[in-house]
Write a structure and sequence with these properties.
Elements lengths: L7 H12 L5 H7 L4 H13 L12 H4 L3 E9 L4 H12 L4 E6 L6 E7 L2 H13 L4 E8 L11 H5 L4
Antiparallel strand pairs: 1-3, 1-4, 2-3
Length: 162
């Protein structure tokens, strides 16, 4: 259940912005069939309420520099609250860790790491192990080819199936 009362236009605004973050406010208003001021007010309300976390560019890294993307599953030595906090603090300081999720199930975390090359990735992981962040073991999965990257399916998440 959304904490916001969203109507179809709000959902359409969010859907468009998730795909086209640089769209002008005038074009956005036209696409959702609103005049500029009501569209901007809706946008401001969703931004102020924290529903829109930010705007950023999606960089074509392969065109910019050689790199490797690695997904890493992590198991901690201990499952005490302070162990999770220590690990999360350590990971928060590592710029190459672009995403990190706490998991339920067999592993404690899933991280996405973007590094210059495999050697740089391994140095990063060696540093994490030496930092006493509480890593018991980890498994690395090197991305060989990106297949799909898309914004979340807002309509499917918000529409009531009944």
């Amino acid at each position: 259940m959304s904490m916001f009362a969203l109507d179809d236009r709000d959902i359409e605004i969010l859907s468009i912005l998730s795909r086209e973050g640089r769209i002008s406010k005038a074009d956005l208003a036209r696409r959702v069939n609103l005049s500029a001021t009501p569209c901007w007010q809706r946008l401001a309300r969703m931004e102020a309420g924290g529903l829109i976390k930010g705007y950023r560019a999606e960089i074509a890294l392969a065109r910019l520099a050689p790199h490797v993307t690695v997904f890493v599953t992590v198991e901690l030595e201990s499952h005490r609250a302070e162990s999770f906090q220590r690990f999360e603090t350590a990971v928060g300081r590592i710029e190459e860790v672009t995403d990190c999720w706490a998991l339920g199930g067999g592993y404690d975390y899933l991280m996405q790491v973007v590094a210059r090359d495999v050697a740089a990735y391994q140095a990063l992981m060696d540093g994490l192990l030496e930092s006493r962040a509480g890593v018991k073991r980890y498994f690395s999965y090197v991305v060989t080819k990106p297949v799909k990257s898309a914004p979340p399916p807002l309509r499917a998440l918000l529409d009531d199936p009944s």
